[in-house]
Write a structure and sequence with these properties.
The complex is a heterodimer. Chain A contains nine helices and nine strands. Chain A is an alpha+beta fold. Chain B has two domains: about 100 residues, 2-Layer Sandwich (Alpha-Beta Plaits); about 160 residues, no CATH class. In chain B, the strands form two sheets. Chain B has a three-stranded antiparallel β-sheet with strand order 1-2-3. A two-stranded antiparallel ribbon of chain B has the order 4-5. In chain B, about 45% of the residues are buried. The chains are: A alpha+beta, B mainly alpha. The complex binds iron/sulfur cluster (SF4) (4 copies).
């Protein structure tokens, strides 16, 4: 049996505890919610090479800035309070200063925690993001103009970016040299984005999860399956036969319609001018 | 303390100004000196220390990592590189020797701000102040560890003023000034010594090794105490003094054994009777004067 006095003290104690617990729980809820928000990295902020997946990275990086210090190109920055990147974590903006892909990767070596994975020793295997030619309306290569700057600055040129030659339908007689990025080689260094000659880059490095699509898992590409199996997996293709006039052949994957007769023997000459000159009576 | 005088003014008269501020000045030299070492790199290109107090590398050989951060990181479920583990171990051992909350009094930059707030609070004679329980900080410490476990991220680091301000000073403040100002105003007008002595989980963490640490303040000459209460007024954790200073009758030794003593040495400074000095934890016999006498006697 407690006296009135000690009863009150005990109650006071319990109220005190409850007050502290509630205060701390509120604080926890606040910080917890804020941490979820802070986990969303803006698309233009790229992590240093070898950074773990974002969720893991935010648990592993102690925000010491040693990677920032050892980056010889001042590429990396530590986010300050108020920046829209989780505060204290390292990042870079490709359009400001891209990663120069140092062969010895000093940023990873400097990281004491392994938030930058020390298993990454070949900078070509880094995947900081994926370049995307995101605005084909303004990229001048799509207008048939020669540029190829992104292609030429790419440290993995020829593998990460190639130039594909397409027909230029506007002029009808020129080519388009279209930059095409390949995800199996692009490191996301951002050199291309940095050097894009437009006022706003038409090629941008995005986090891979934004930049990459994923084919449905049930999907099979017939020609690849065929190649892998060494032959058709379904009924073999019948060779198509075309009904063509004498002396004509059709090359399906090549030159199209082929005339076997020597020139000049058919009703039309090879020189269209001769046909024109013949006038109506020749028809 | 006599009316109209400030804590420590008696010590200034008896010992002189320098002697009465000796440890305070040394602490400021230590706090600012460590910060200066970090700043020498970015400002002058002299790279003695890189990084910040979260984790650093000195002279390219000595790694140091905050063990509180290392613990949170382990709770998020990430294995660490050996560098961080070794760094955390070195720091932990150092604080086991020097006193856990030496971090607070001799390293942490926030301490300068909260000391200033407490000083101004005293000078302005502000009487009203909200009281938080001193154990609140351990609840908050528990919370930060729980957050690491549950969110899998170093969630507390998003708001931890200690590391944010330190990092800010070295890598760019951003809005960290706001935090610093908030803590100053909070300690000045809302709760006297509210942050460092009641709420900060970093201090709470370092008080844990502080329970076992070697270097301690001791009230060796406690029989000379004239009850001026100056030490209680200046101490950020006055509750740690009483058992040592006034505990002789209860059989307590003179050494301050609480893990929350920050080893700031301010009590040594302000005591006009030179009751306190730095000592180690094993020099804590209750019957010291007699023991010394028997030693001297043939
Ligand atoms: S690889 Fe080199 S340039 Fe790129 S972030 Fe690391 S240190 Fe900087
Ligand atoms: S070195 Fe590692 S732990 Fe330090 S800021 Fe960079 S990524 Fe984070
Ligand atoms: S980001 Fe651009 S420059 Fe860098 S590897 Fe990829 S395509 Fe090349
Ligand atoms: S209690 Fe916290 S803020 Fe205060 S000095 Fe210690 S670590 Fe720094």
């Amino acid at each position: 049996m407690t006296t009135k006095g000690t009863g009150r003290t005990r109650r006071g104690f319990l109220v005190d505890m409850a007050r502290t617990a509630c205060g701390v729980a509120l604080l926890g809820a606040g910080v917890g919610l804020y941490s979820r928000q802070a986990a969303s990295l803006p698309a233009e902020a790229l992590r240093p090479p070898g950074a773990l997946d974002e969720a893991d990275f935010l648990g592993a990086c102690v925000r010491c800035g040693l990677c920032v210090r050892d980056c010889p190109y001042d590429t990396l920055k530590l986010s300050a309070l108020g920046d829209n990147v989780a505060n204290g974590t390292p990042y870079f903006i490709a359009r400001d200063i891209p990663c120069e892909m140092c062969p010895d990767i000093p940023c990873i070596k400097a990281c004491p925690t392994g938030a930058l994975d020390h298993a990454l020793t070949d900078i070509d295997a880094a995947r900081m993001g994926l370049a995307v030619v995101i605005d084909q309306e303004s990229c001048i290569a799509f207008h048939g103009l020669r540029c190829e700057v992104c292609f030429n600055v790419c440290p993995v040129r020829g593998k990460a970016i190639t130039l594909d030659m397409l027909h230029n339908p506007r002029s009808g007689k020129h080519a388009l040299f279209i930059p095409v990025v390949h995800s199996d080689a692009c490191t996301g260094c951002g050199k291309c984005e940095k050097s894009c000659i437009l006022d706003e880059a038409a090629i941008k490095v995005l986090p891979a999860k934004l930049a990459k699509g994923l084919l449905g898992r049930h999907y099979r590409l017939g020609w690849k399956e065929k190649e892998a199996a060494g032959g058709s997996l379904v009924t073999p293709d019948e060779e198509h036969s075309y009904t063509l006039p004498e002396g004509m052949r059709y090359d399906y994957e090549g030159r199209g319609l082929i005339r076997d007769e020597p020139a000049g023997q058919g009703p039309y000459s090879d020189n269209p001018l001769e046909t024109l000159k013949r006038g109506r009576e020749g028809l | 303390m006599h009316p109209g005088m400030h804590p420590g003014s008696e010590a200034v008269t008896t010992k002189g100004w320098w002697k009465a501020h000796q440890w305070l000045l040394l602490r400021r030299v230590s706090q600012l000196g460590i910060l200066a070492l970090f700043l020498l790199g970015p400002l002058a290109g002299i790279w003695i220390v890189k990084g910040n107090i979260a984790s650093s590398l000195t002279l390219d050989v000595l790694p140091l990592t905050d063990p509180y951060l290392a613990l949170q990181m382990l709770l998020t479920g990430h294995g660490m590189e050996a560098t961080a583990l070794i760094g955390a171990a070195i720091v932990l051992v150092s604080y086991l020797l020097l006193g856990g909350r030496v971090y607070c009094a001799w390293v942490c930059p926030i301490n300068i701000v909260t000391d200033a707030a407490a000083w101004l609070h005293q000078r302005l004679g502000i009487k009203r102040t909200a009281q938080f329980a001193r154990h609140s900080r351990y609840w908050i410490l528990g919370l930060t560890l729980l957050l690491a476990l549950v969110t899998g991220t170093l969630a507390w680091e998003l708001v931890n003023p200690v590391t944010i301000v330190y990092r800010g000073l070295i890598f760019g403040m951003g809005l960290a000034w706001v935090l610093l100002l908030a803590i100053f105003l909070f300690d000045l007008f809302v709760s006297r010594r509210g942050w460092c002595s009641h709420l900060c989980p970093v201090g709470a963490f370092y008080s844990l090794p502080g329970h076992f640490s070697l270097l301690r303040v001791s009230a060796v000459e406690r029989n000379k105490c004239n009850d001026c209460m100056d030490c209680f007024t200046v101490c950020p954790e006055p509750q740690v003094i009483r058992p040592a200073l006034k505990g002789a009758s209860m059989g307590n030794g003179p050494v301050i054994m609480s893990g929350n003593c920050t080893n700031c040495g301010r009590c040594i400074d302000v005591c006009s009777k030179d009751v306190f000095r730095f000592d180690h934890r094993f020099d804590n016999s209750t019957s010291k004067p007699i023991a010394q006498k028997t030693e001297v006697m043939p």
